[in-house]
Design goal:
The complex is a heterodimer of chains A (about 325) and B (about 775). Chain A contains nine helices and twelve strands. The termini of chain A are far apart. Chain A has a single domain, classed as P-loop containing nucleotide triphosphate hydrolases (Rossmann fold, 3-Layer(aba) Sandwich). Among the domains of chain B are: about 180 residues, Jelly Rolls, CATH 2.60.120; about 130 residues. In chain B, the strands form three sheets. Chain B has a six-stranded antiparallel beta sheet with strand order 3-2-5-11-8-9. A four-stranded antiparallel beta sheet of chain B has the order 1-13-6-10. Chain B is built from 24 helices and 13 strands. The chains are: A alpha/beta (about 325), B alpha+beta (about 775). Chains A and B meet through strand 2, helix 1 and helix 2 of A and helix 4 and helix 7 of B.
Amino acid sequence: MAREVVVETRNLTKTYRDFWGRQKKVALRALNLEIYQGEVFGLLGPNGSGKTTSIKLLLGLLFPTEGEAMVFGQPAADVKKNERIGYLPEESYLYRFLNAEETLDFYGRLFNMTPEVREKRAQELIEMVGLKRDRKRILKEYSKGMRQRIGLAQALINDPDLVILDEPTSGLDPLGARWMKNLILSLKKRQKTVLMCSHRLEDVQDVCDRIAILNEGELQALGEVSTLLQDINRLELRASGVQINETLRRELEEVLRRHGGEVDSIGHPTTTLEDYFLKIVEESKARPGRRYLPEIPGAGAPPTPPANLPQDAIREKQ
Amino acid sequence: MMFAALVLERDPLTLERILTSGLWTWLQIVGALAALVVWGGGAVKLLAWRRRLPIFPSDRLMPLFWVLCLLFTVLYVGVGVLFLPEVLHPGQEPFAPWVPDAITWGLRAAGGLALLAFALNFLENLLQLRLRRIGALARLSFKEAIRRRVLYVFCGLLLIFLFANWFVRSKPEDQVRSSVQIVSFAMTILLLVSAGLVSAFSIPNDIKQQTIHTVVTKPVERFEIVLGRFFGYTLLMTLVLVILTTLSLGFVLRSTNPDAASESIKARDPVYGALSFETMNEVGEKNTLNPENVGREWDYRSYISGPTRGKPAQYAVWTFTDMPGKLAERKDLRCEFNLDIYRTTKGEENKGVTCTFLFETWRFRPRNAQVYNSDPRKNTPEGANALAEEYGYYEVGGKQITDYKTLFVDIPASILKNQRISRGDLQQVVAKHEVTVQELRKRAADLIQTIEPLRSRQAKAVLASAGGVSLGTSLLRRQQATLLGAGTGLMGGTASLEAVLPGIDPAQLRLTPEEEQGLLALEGQLSRSQTELYQAEEMLRQAREDESTLAELEKKGQARPPFRVRVRCDTRTQFVGMAKYDLYFRADDPQGGRDMAAFAWNFYKGSFGLWLRLCLMIGLSVFLSTELGGVISWLCAAVLYIGGIFRDFIESLARGGNVGGGPLESFFRLVKRENMNIPLEETTATKVATGSDVVFRWVVGRVMNLLPDIDRFDFTDYVANGFNIAVVTQDMLPAFLLLVGYLLPWAILAYYLMKAREIAGPN
């Protein structure tokens, strides 16, 4: 069964002009895309490649010079389509004189929600984004990460079918970034469509089903992440319960040579820095007072921790 | 500028005027502008068909749009054809009598259709607007202004309250006027500048800081953002205005001297009349008077002179067509006035300029003035009331006039009963007079019947002793004959009287002293009775005349003739100046004792004028900022506002009413050192100059249509001079409708500009 097309662009082109109508820059050239319901779609590209312009065209913030953009089968300039869309801008441009509750109440009103629904939804989202303790503080006092979280909450106030995220993990610490990625995956589980653009390729790789790569306003690549990243000229073998030694290396080389290949490298795999970082932070949370002290060659007994620290706050060698 | 009196150089705005001529004019002007925009849009579409133009409605309404365009274009072309002869031969009579009407109605219809075509997309979209969203955006604007501490600037007003007295030097009676003017001026400047700045920067800042991105990506119509901003700031400014008005009221009332209180601490509800001038000579002949010009540059007032030998007396006449009926129920009716004195000599020591005020209804006959004046009843209040009702006349003579001070005379309110009498009542008056006349006639006849035998005896005695008819008796007989009518038998009796005279002893006929005294008394009674009868017959005749006049008017559906106040200057060599609004009747109760409360309420109503100007400033700033940057929007709004203040001057430029001609003609005169009042010699250069000025005037005329009529939104003078501001029929509601009429086209324009605007930029 064919999946529902949520976003469709046909020959979408955007040219910026100056006051006198002279062409300044072609930001996007003849983009043809289809994004389906329930998929996480990533727009990738260097700065100025047309990612944000594409998103702004889809949201009706810009008008196409040529071609058309359709969302849920309606023209992008149509306001009604926005009822099913949630948008998180790159920088969380929210009204900084409002607090979290007021912010969500304001955006809830824009969806014509009743007071009861607004309040219930706002409390759920504040809890979800972890700002319950800070819900009465004005956004001006928020850190960038906190603003990104409340920005996400406002994007989800209407429980949208299409979530458009512009650099969702920018400004977030690894914990926040992981939380954001988990959230995107949970949205996917709920059959929501997510369109995101990001510079952090590992984030895109982690969550996206399909990606499009833009450069200089033109579409360079489009397809499923797993397919696009597959290197059919190389082979990866992973095993457990065995350590590398000369005999094993020789035998493996021998087998591969018989099949016409050759070993590039053999060794123990390393984890990602992100996983390692998260592991440390989790341990730190589990054991308050834990700290890193460098090992000083020739030094005697480690210094005594301050009396007010718990007993397990001892020097550890990492 | 303060004139120590309420000066109204234009008639107050009435609801009736707004809903009739005002509405048609609006339709013509706005419709013409709309037609220009639609034609412009069509031209752009023809040249660059791909270009997005928001004025075109949805595909569904496109056929209607084109039909409307076609209709109004045809109508404008038709009007142009009809108007062409006037352009080619100015001043020439139209070729058919229906042409002027056809032009007027053609322009109205075309304007209406053009406006409908222009607003079609707007109207289509209007149904999508939701109050909750507009309310949310309004609340946001309100909170923004509060939390960003924009309101702190209003504390500046407190400084004015604290130190205003340092700068105010006024006469005691002008104290309240000065205070009200200063407070109003300070509030106007402070609030207008703040309101303009706050609202002009709101949408541009929203776009610049990209906060608008999270709003327009919600199901929000862009016009809802514009309306939300407008209503938010209006709400904010309303709150500020109420607080500042309350503070200002406290400042104004903190210590008022009695003179100032009697001038200004009240809310007079005036009834105005129309002013005209006339002369009247000693025999009561009236002629229209061209009032005197005393040479003052400001020609607001016209002047009448004191008595001049050999010339008829000059009168200023106020004609009141619609005096409220409730005033007739009062005891007194207060007539207030504020006249200007122009002295040509120092005058007499300790004697001011005096005037006589004559109050007359349509039922008053000048010949009754003498009867009225000789009636002793006029010296008591009750008698004066009765006389005023009877004659429709009241006179106040020798009233001393003081410059720059509101003076008054109280007149019997019953004079209005005379004015407003119904036909039924008038018929009753006629019937009453008929009864009176009958009674008086009967009384006179009875008296004559009683007197006659005595006179007859007396006459016979005189004849018997003198042997002939005396001249006196003859006269007496003639008088009796006149009284009772010829042929009543009395004249016939004369012959028989003479026939019986011979042979009678005169001593038997002569009256005793008691009889003679009785006869004298009876004759006195008869004389009074005759006078009363004469007056009663005159009143009956007048009542019948009035009744037939009223019947005639009712038949024609016309109002009864107006109530008049005639003012005459009684001091020789002095002039008294007056304008239409310098004399009025108080429709409110001047002795009601609610002056302070009425003034306070009027003070708040006065603030409504400032509220309208704030709405105007906020509206213009917000609407312009949908396309322009913050600073430019604010400047444009300020220019339109200031242009609106000088609208009268611009209008005089557009109509060529200024002395010395338009800019080129003036420049020409300057270079050639020509006098401003002398017509220019007809040369090619002067023709070019005057011709260019015609074009200039046309352009100024069109620009003038873009300017708001600020003067209509200013009620400060009413409050400062203690005049009530009417709510519905005049002043407030008409001014509000005027503002709506002005802002509506700007709002539609803002709708299109916002719709066509790309909210985001390249970055």
